[in-house]
Amino acid sequence: MKKRTILPLLALAGYGLYHCRRAILARLLKLPPPRYDVGVQRDIPVPMPDGVRLLADHYAPQASDDFPTILIRTPYGRGKEVALGGGYPLAELPAQRLAERGYHVLVQGARGCYDSEGEFVPHANEAADGQATVGWIAQQPWFDGTLATWGPSYLGYCQWAIAAGAPQALKAMLVTIASAENFSVTHPDGAFGLETRLRWSQGMHTQQRLHRGTLRERLAHRLFGRDEEHLQAAFDHLPLLEADVVAAGAPIPFYRELLHHDRPGEPFWAARDHRGAVADVPAAVHLVGGWYDYYLRGLLRDYGSLQAAGRGPYLTIGPWSHANPGGMLEGLRLGLAWFDAQLKGQGDGLQRKPVRLYVMGAGEWREFDAFPPPAHATRYYLHGGGRLAPEAPPGAVSPDHYRYDPAGPTPAVGGALLSMQGAGRQDNAPLEARDDVLVYSTPPLVRDLEVIGPVRLALFARSSLDHTDFFGRLCDVDPAGRSFNVCDGLFRLAPGRGERQPDGSLRIEVDLWATAHRFRQGHRLRLLVASGAHPRWSRNLGSGEPLGAGTTLAVAQQTIYHDAAHPSALILPVVA
């Protein structure tokens, strides 16, 4: 066969394989079939008002029609960085999939990240840079006047930063595992989110360093890097202000700034907080979260603001932790359906009701008109002997005691961690066996119990120290005795916090976050009470020293009351 005959056949075969791969990928991702070939123009310089140029990639359907535009802004790499051994695959895969289905997609690197010029200062420049980028998009010949935004985590925060300026072209947003502010994640419950903030800071520092290095250095780091080992040592290091050096081998300025700014309302945080504009955003918003995501409270707060303002937001929450790829893929699937409905008038792919929740324990999705759905606040009281029961405790019962030593802090087992390993739903047997953890359990349930909404713990307690923590966790114990965490929370005690009782004890209320969970017949409810979940919340040293500089460790003697005068109770939103 002649060469001029073979080459077209090879090209045809390659074209067929290309479309076959796209069809297979669409089926694996549970997406509708692709409709268009996609062309990509890379490294487009987008000028900012101060002269800095941020690079972007434009994914365009190969057709002469007009298409809406989706903007994705990211500090994690636009695509080629991932292939070269750095960055995270959060942008290129969704950009290709969205463009294949009829959207212009602009993926832009955040200021100071990879090849974008300037200095990366987390959360500081996303509003100005994002809104300048929207202005640049409006001048492009391919822009049809309709804009949407998409993305998880930091990419979701970038969306809120743009929406704060409310450009008229912005018609739809799909925000996944993110919120409009970051103080409540950085300093949750008056503590410090050590695992999330130090792990993220180390990752950002390392990716920037490797980007400036050689390909050999990047590959060597992927194969032989000891990031996790260094992180674990850093979590235990004091003072916290030096933990970045242990984790990354060098000071990380933005990590240290987070420690210095530990009060809400400071100008540092006010400039990065877009909650005030959430209710005024005219775009149609769909929020996607995870029951084990550390942004869950902020995401639900944003949902509440939109709902109260009559904006009609959609909400989807699944059984995911922050780094679980399942949540990010669901954000892509929902994003495509959301944009088709809001930008193209094709609403067949939308859920019937605006709120869709995965009910853990039942293993099923349920739809509701709003969150939280109607529920009855049901109390399960703490009793002596480690019992948990709906009956109030009797008149006089001896309290329970435990000793908390910050030199060997109670660890975080599962839950809302950034790590992909050990986050989310975990067996709590190792935690429950510790001497610094109290355990209260119901008898096996005689019927299913479904809990949907915020969970609280009203606790009557006393500490030998003025500065200490009280941690609560709700677990589901199956008939085999395995105890899996459902939701949890922490209260950081300091002078002036808590309701002082006549006998000198304190009544505190611990926010155990929200959940949707069915405790099945034959299972037991279990409550854990402790004084830490390190390093998810930085350990309380007990000394009252400044957050970043503290090194003095003080042992706390803790008392938990559960009698008629001190009715400590787990408060559950039970639905019919």
User: Any idea what the shape is?
Assistant: globular
* Residue share in helix: 25-40%
Amount of beta strand: 25-35%
Report the total helices. Answer: 16
Structural class: alpha+beta
- Separation of termini? 73 Å
What does this protein look like?
With 576 residues, the chain is α+β, with helices and mostly antiparallel strands. The chain is 28% helix and 28% strand. The protein has 16 helices and 22 strands. It has helices spanning 3-28, 80-83, 92-100, 126-138, 154-163, 183-186, 194-212, 215-224, 227-235, 243-248, 253-260, 267-270, 275-278, 296-308, 325-344, 429-432; strands at 38-47, 53-61, 69-74, 104-109, 147-152, 170-176, 284-292, 314-321, 355-359, 364-368, 376-383, 387-389, 400-404, 438-441, 449-463, 468-477, 483-493, 499-500, 506-519, 524-530, 556-561, 569-575. The longest helix is centred in the N-terminal third of the chain and has 26 residues, at 3-28. The mean pLDDT is 93.
Secondary-structure map:
Layout: H1 3-28, E1 38-47, E2 53-61, E3 69-74, H2 80-83, H3 92-100, E4 104-109, H4 126-138, E5 147-152, H5 154-163, E6 170-176, H6 183-186, H7 194-212, H8 215-224, H9 227-235, H10 243-248, H11 253-260, H12 267-270, H13 275-278, E7 284-292, H14 296-308, E8 314-321, H15 325-344, E9 355-359, E10 364-368, E11 376-383, E12 387-389, E13 400-404, H16 429-432, E14 438-441, E15 449-463, E16 468-477, E17 483-493, E18 499-500, E19 506-519, E20 524-530, E21 556-561, E22 569-575
Parallel strand pairs: 3-4, 3-5, 5-6, 6-7, 7-8, 8-9
Antiparallel strand pairs: 1-2, 2-4, 9-10, 11-12, 11-22, 13-21, 14-20, 15-19, 15-21, 15-22, 16-17, 16-20, 18-19
